[in-house]
Amino acid sequence: MGLVGNTHLVAGNAEVIPQILAILKQEGIETQGNPDIYVRKYQRFGVDDAIELRDRSNRRPVAGSQRFFIVATPGMTGEAQNALLKTLEEPPADAAFFIIVPAPAMLLPTLRSRAQVLILEHTEAAEDSIDTKAFLAAAPPERLDMLKPLLEKDEDDKRDIGKIVAFLSALEQRLAKKPEALHAIYRARKYIGDKGALVKPLLEQVALLVPKV
Known about the structure:
The chain is α/β, with parallel strands linked by helices. The chain folds into two domains: 7-117, Rossmann fold; 132-209. 41% of the residues lie in helices and 12% in strands. The protein has ten helices and five strands. The protein has helices at residues 17-26, 47-57, 78-89, 109-112, 132-137, 140-146, 148-151, 161-174, 183-191, 199-209; strands spanning 7-11, 37-41, 67-72, 95-101, 116-117. The chain has a five-stranded parallel beta sheet with strand order 2-3-4-1-5, with no helix packed on it. It is elongated.
């Protein structure tokens, strides 16, 4: 597999990082103990993280002729994407970026336009935490009840944004032939990764506004 371009978008989560490292190894790049490979996992990628990534990308390689930045996050704030956009518009010639998110479609069109989508081989699609077909066939009260697993918080009082985005993307795919039904889904996906996003109201709007199919 030959890599094209400096920026690659990958659908998935941190579990696909070994696959990306394997691709780099196939390209003849040493991945063990290489100081020019930067791997980072984020709970949520904010503007400060975008600035840090920009600063790191402007540094010279240490051991080789190129640097690789592998970033995995379930969500990026709009502010962070705009800050990162400036880096990706004119990336340093010796820097390559791999941005792993649950669904590349969740990112701003301006950012997606500056990247190549990297399809990983032998990657199984993540199972939906909610049966989207059943969700679309259900009445609003039932839908609200079905959303409860996505709204549960972990011991750090955080929700799994990756699962939420994957659910929204699965809904979008099922409604691809009904673009008039996608407004609430687009809105939820646009704001769900922002710091302080009101996740529960955004998902409730999806449950209430998306027509029954």
